[in-house]
Protein: Rpn family recombination-promoting nuclease/putative transposase
Organism: Candidatus Kentrum sp. TC
Amino acid sequence: MVRKKPGRKIITFDWAIKTILRDKANFDVLEGFLTALFRRPITILELLESEGNRRDEVDKYNRVDLLAKIRGGIAKDDERVIVEVQYLPESAYLKRLAYGAAKTIVENLNLGESYDSVKKVYSVSLLYFDAVRDGDDYIYHGRTEFTGLHTRASVTLKESLIGDRVRIGETDIFPEYYLIPLERFTDEVRDDLDQWVYAFKNNEVPDEFTAPGIVALKEKLDYLKMDERERRGFDKHLDYTRSEWGMIDHARREGREEGREEERKRLVRALHTNGVAMEAIAVSVGLSKREIRRLLGEE
């Protein structure tokens, strides 16, 4: 276990995804993290545009993500990885992850292409809330596996059913999901991946960390190395993030104390007016998206 000394403070990873990591010169940061997570060398070929990573004037502070084209290890063809940072719990969150992976598969198969061209998709979620009830880990991996209905034994499918681009027994074509609830990490660093998780959780990189890419993380996400314009942008982002969390926490408290329909309507409208995402409003007041739209007069 690595003993840690105070390290260099870095900007939050969600802000890095919005800004710094979109520059090709900084791909080595994300490559280092994915290499540690997937346990094979990863190269980012390019970042792809999607609904989730389009930037506009109205920032989304609860969730930010990027979609990358990657290659590495045993993969014969390029693959896709969705990396997202999520601050607050969201109703139907896992369904949204499943939808995002499926949508990525569809959007990356061109008209007229055979199914052999379907891309492998990974979904990686850095979570600032607890996602499990009785887990004993801080990284959870989900994948599709075929087993005997009666024997429960794993089975190896015929290669002809999978296609030439994927090797049976080493990987498969179905999406894989990684949930990383950072608060479950105890700050005990045992390997390269733990160094990355520690950095994401604490926004800090101790000098003794040596995982591939971690030095790039420390240097390129160093708050003190930002120019004045970059610092103002980051500080504004951090202020808005804290403000949104505060509004949601306030709504939860008042929602528990005031259960009346009119009070809920007022809270919903206030959060909506302040630009809080529909998913976050639903979680904060304990209503479905349909009920939220009804209170807003959209149905």
About this structure: The beta strands are 8-9, 43-48, 63-71, 79-86, 121-127, 140-142, 176-181, 204-205.
